[in-house]
Design goal:
Elements: H1 2-5, H2 11-25, H3 27-44, E1 49-55, E2 68-75, E3 83-84, E4 97-103, H4 112-122, E5 123-134, H5 139-146, H6 159-168, E6 171-179, H7 188-193, H8 196-204, E7 211-218, H9 247-251
Parallel strand pairs: 1-2, 1-4, 2-3, 4-5
Antiparallel strand pairs: 5-7, 6-7
Domain Methyltransferase type: 83-131
Protein name: Methyltransferase domain-containing protein
Keywords: Methyltransferase, Transferase
Length: 252
């Protein structure tokens, strides 16, 4: 049934998601996701509500959020996805979710603006949108320029630019965090030796991290109360004197 549902899906989009999924399932992608999971679950632990919706090309299930009742993952047909849909056709009503997470959704998207609008539409007023992306000004972003795997297809949109998009969509940026300070080295031995870089980077939030995490809140548009007109006591109306003008004055 999934194959039938996606028979008319954009093959370019399916290919992009497949390449991104393969890269994230590899050693470097797993390293990045491991560090992201830690920061993401720290942020999600302070939210509560009915529904959390996550979207992204990763093969893992939705992130853990203990205070949210329902945790749903949607996207292309892959392991861990509960609701299958295209990136700009989410089967959700407006304001349906308390929290929406885009984990590398903008990095591997044919239309980042369209995807972000769809995610923003799904967040209730006062709810939160969390975005994780590969930092372009890092060793990971530089590696993308020379990569021959799925990382080469990543857009690596700067966090400042994403923040501008969020502002236009009616969101207030509450927090910006960074993580994965180890360089994208394929050697597991070197990754273990450089593990201490993560604690240093977390403590100082130094520039050059491999990914960023943006936490934005959807602003509540309130109704402006009508201004009450002041009722002053009115005095008695008196006729104004009218000056008499003779014809002689008009002719002169």
């Amino acid at each position: 049934m999934t194959d039938q549902a996606f028979a008319q899906a954009d093959p370019e989009w399916l290919k992009l998601i497949g390449e991104a999924r393969d890269w994230l399932a590899g050693p470097l992608g797993q390293l990045l996701l491991e560090e992201e999971r830690r920061l993401l679950e720290e942020e999600l632990a302070r939210f509560f509500g009915g529904y959390l919706v996550s979207y992204g090309p990763g093969t893992e299930g939705p992130p853990r959020a203990g205070q949210i009742q329902h945790n749903v993952r949607l996207g292309a047909p892959m392991p861990g996805v509960q609701i299958v849909c295209e990136e700009q056709s989410w089967p959700l009503g407006e304001h349906a979710a308390d929290v929406v997470v885009l984990q590398h959704g903008l990095d591997f998207s044919l239309s980042p603006h369209g995807l972000l609008r769809e995610a923003a539409r799904s967040v209730r007023p006062g709810g939160h949108l969390l975005i994780l992306g590969i930092h372009p000004w890092s060793a990971w972003g530089v590696r993308r320029l020379f990569a021959r795997d799925g990382l080469a297809k990543a857009r690596c949109i700067a966090p400042s630019r994403v923040g501008d998009w969020l502002s236009l969509l009616g969101f207030a940026l509450e927090k910006r965090r960074f993580g994965c300070y180890r360089p994208p080295l394929a050697s597991l031995a070197w990754q273990m030796r450089l593990r201490r870089m993560e604690s240093w980077g977390d403590a100082w939030q130094l520039p050059g991290a491999g990914f960023y995490l943006l936490v934005a809140r959807k602003l509540v548009v309130g109704l402006r109360p009508l201004r009450q007109s002041r009722r002053e006591p009115m005095g008695k109306l008196l006729p104004m004197p009218v000056a008499k003008v003779s014809r002689r004055d008009l002719d002169s």
